[in-house]
Amino acid sequence: GYGHISSLAPALRTTSNEHRDLRQAQGQISTSIPKGKISRFEQIPRLEAGERRIFGIGQGNLRATPLQVANAMAAIARGGMYKPPRLFTDDANDPEFASIDLNISKQTLDVIHNGMSAVVSESGGTAYNEFVHSGLAGQGVNVYGKTGSTEQPDNAWFAGFATDGAGRGIAIAVVVEGAQRGSTDAGPLARDIIQFCIEAGYIGDAANLSF
């Protein structure tokens, strides 16, 4: 419900970097789709009690960017530790930013991990058919995912993360605008991106991050 979502608010934000000129914006949780373009915080409609109740069943006007959702997935993969995103434009080592502990219990994280694993690895999982023959597990990679779709407008989502036995991991969020199903529309793209990351050496049995 809304209480759990609001407690994860730090993971649904981007952080500006004065050396990168990145735009900063909070995710929006609003009660109706406003007319026209929102340019100021006060233009976002107030959240009403009825809207909060339906967040728990995946309904309501909860808005977030792909980067914000990928950050939330990364925080879950790290055991509830959030780190601000960084954009690297060269090989220089940028300073490490402080992590934020979201105080998610191990029990809750275990439930989330098990559920997201079942999405791609168990018969009946919404993305099972897209991942069952992917060969990712055979390359030393475990995938955790969540499919979804939105209305007004229609978009297909796949969000999740992948890890290997050495503790390396990647987080991912895929949006296909105008599509209907996160499983069959966004899922294959996410699968192929994970495979690309394996081949590029970011993750998996053959990963080599020394380049």
Automatic annotation (TrEMBL):
Show where the Penicillin-binding protein transpeptidase domain sits.
Answer: 55-195
Transmembrane ranges, per UniProt, are none
Q: Name one GO molecular function term.
A: penicillin binding
Q: Where is this region: Disordered?
A: 1-25
Q: What Pfam families does this protein's entry cite?
A: Transpeptidase
**Record GO biological process:** cell wall organization
| Any one of the GO CC terms | plasma membrane
- Matching PANTHER family, A to Z? PEPTIDOGLYCAN D,D-TRANSPEPTIDASE
Name of this chain's protein: Penicillin-binding protein transpeptidase domain-containing protein
The organism that produces this protein has a lineage beginning with: unclassified sequences, metagenomes, ecological metagenomes
